[in-house]
Specification:
alpha/beta, 10-stranded mixed β-sheet, 4-stranded mixed β-sheet, globular, binds 1-O-phosphono-beta-D-fructofuranose, 14 strands
Length: about 325
């Protein structure tokens, strides 16, 4: 089973503008799209899109939380929600159709008490079995200790389950007290974590090796349309899309990649297949607005455009 924790879900409100968005001016919105989001929700949705199942765990609160839960039900995503006081947050995405540029405004979200966080721990303690996956995605809500992911990763280890982590800042830093099985930082997140600037492909390889040395089995360093640099056991891979061409809807493509990777891992696919498939799903996601709503058949076809190159082993 795949459990996905979305500790800080967000109602994603996407505003599409025909032209460039102007600050300190009146802007007219062309189209609005609203979906239940947050990194973990997007991961769970991607897993469903490719034909898999997962259980989403999330904190929901207030009227916004009720709307969120109805949306997930209608969508058919299996979830278990833990009620919190306060309103589930809204993320505003300002998308410029012409250039494909987007601006994301993430609200902090409601406070989560220690008591409610403990409920999640107990739930996982009871449910998590050997061979399961526990995906921890996105920012941690206020009120929860910054080292909470480390605690949950330790729980996963104890249960012989695979911890997968996609977060940033202090929650990423402190999670390494109990290294995850897989981690997917982007370049900025890796730089913050490592404390040095990644300038070249060589730097990216150094970065994945350094994170690998901290005890992670699979390190996937993403760099938008520039592709992935991967450390997988002793092997190193560079993954790219032919011609570097991707679509304009980048929101949630990293989450889609994580979801599709975990889907492939759970099925025991070989490494190259997992990387090719997941990259194609991430690519398909950039061609459709809304995170995780890509066309799975298109993703199958797009696999032909994905180049997975294994580098010579260095040990
Ligand atoms: O505040 P976080 O958890 O870092 O990011 C949240 C978020 O911006 O990321 C997702 C896209 O990856 C959106 O669905 C969501 O609203």
């Amino acid at each position: 089973m795949i459990y996905v924790l979305c500790a800080n879900p967000a109602w994603d409100r996407m505003l599409f503008f025909e032209d460039q968005l102007l600050l300190n001016a009146v802007n007219r919105v062309q189209k609005v799209m609203e979906v239940a989001g947050g990194k973990g929700v997007n991961v769970a949705r991607a897993i469903k899109t490719v034909g898999g199942t997962s259980e989403l765990l999330l904190f929901l609160g207030g009227w916004q939380g009720e709307r969120f839960a109805s949306f997930l039900k209608r969508e058919g995503l299996a979830f278990c929600s833990f009620p919190v006081a306060g309103e589930t947050r809204i993320t505003t995405v300002l998308h410029e159709e012409g250039s494909g540029r987007h601006t994301v405004i993430n609200e902090p979200g409601p406070l989560v008490s220690l008591k409610v966080a403990l409920q999640v721990e107990r739930y996982l303690e009871e449910k998590l079995c050997s061979g399961d996956y526990l995906v921890l995605s996105g920012s941690l809500p206020r009120g929860v200790q910054r080292s909470w992911y480390a605690k949950l990763l330790a729980l996963a280890q104890r249960k012989n389950a695979y911890g997968v982590l996609d977060t940033s800042g202090v929650s990423l830093q402190s999670a390494f007290q109990n290294p995850p099985f897989m981690v997917k930082p982007n370049v900025e997140e890796a730089e913050e974590l490592l404390g040095w600037t990644i300038r070249s492909q060589e730097d990216k390889l150094k970065a994945v090796s350094e994170l690998k040395k901290r005890g992670v089995e699979i390190v996937v360093l993403s760099d938008g349309s520039r592709g992935l640099t991967v450390a997988w056991g002793l092997k190193r891979f560079l993954v790219s899309v032919e011609g570097g061409q991707v679509g304009v809807y980048g929101i949630g493509s990293g989450d889609t990649l994580v979801g599709a990777m975990v889907f492939g891992l759970e099925r025991g696919w070989p490494v190259e297949r997992v990387l090719r498939f997941a990259t194609a799903c991430g690519l398909a996601n950039t061609l459709h607005p809304g995170a995780g709503y890509f066309d799975p058949h298109l993703a199958q076809v797009l696999q032909e455009k994905v180049v997975v190159r294994e580098l010579e082993e260095k040990g």
